[in-house]
Amino acid sequence: MHIPDGFLSPSVCGISWLVSLFMLSICVKKVNAFINEKIVPLMGVMSAFIFSAQMLNFPVAAGTSGHLLGGVLSSVLLGPWAGAIVITCVLTVQCFIFQDGGVIALGANILNMAIIGTIGGYFIYRLISKFLRGTLGILAGLAVACWCSVLMGANVCALELALSGTSPLKITLTAMTGIHALIGIGEAVISVLIVTFILKARPDLVREIK
């Protein structure tokens, strides 16, 4: 889902950057409203963990592999606004240090994974965990939100490629949805295992919707 340079048109890149920067400015304001000595090191640790976890790929279908995105995981532990900042930092380091995704296309990658995937996924988690209370609500909401977040990011990525004239929407959407539906399952399983462990060790770190 990391789009390299040359695949998106200048207009799609420009709009993606504008939307991403606007949303990130909101995220920064939201985080500044509740920032404390606890949240800052947690954001740093979460950034390092997700960065490291994304280096590990798991096999999917037809020789394709996927890796943890971590957007919903970070939002459940830190909140959606801090989670989006964490994923943005991870994507930026990957882009400039490891050339994973293009510099010009970075705005689109941030939009797809840090904004739509993280914030959008969190509100799915919030909706489910409001109806299913306790540990069941947390884990069920997390699993569904993780799967949906991967699909949402992939679908928007397909739309961006289609609007750029890179590939017809029907072809891109079919390919992206099929593969990322499987990656989303891996995302859900890994995230649920991590949060299950945290619930036993440090339950205070997990955001349960009141």
From TrEMBL:
One annotated Gene Ontology cellular component of this protein: plasma membrane
PANTHER family: METAL TRANSPORT PROTEIN HI_1621-RELATED
Pfam families reported in the protein's UniProt record: CbiM
Ranges annotated as spanning the membrane: 6-27, 39-56, 68-91, 103-125, 137-163, 175-199
First-listed, main subcellular location of the protein, grouped into a coarse class: membrane
Top-level division of the source organism's lineage: Bacteria
Species assigned in the record: Candidatus Omnitrophus magneticus
Protein name, UniProt field: Cobalamin (Vitamin B12) biosynthesis protein CbiM
Protein location: Cell membrane
Keyword Transmembrane: yes
Keyword Lipid metabolism among record annotations: no
Gene Ontology biological-process entries: transition metal ion transport
Protein's membrane topology: Multi-pass membrane protein
UniProt keyword annotations, A-Z: Cell membrane, Membrane, Transmembrane, Transmembrane helix, Transport
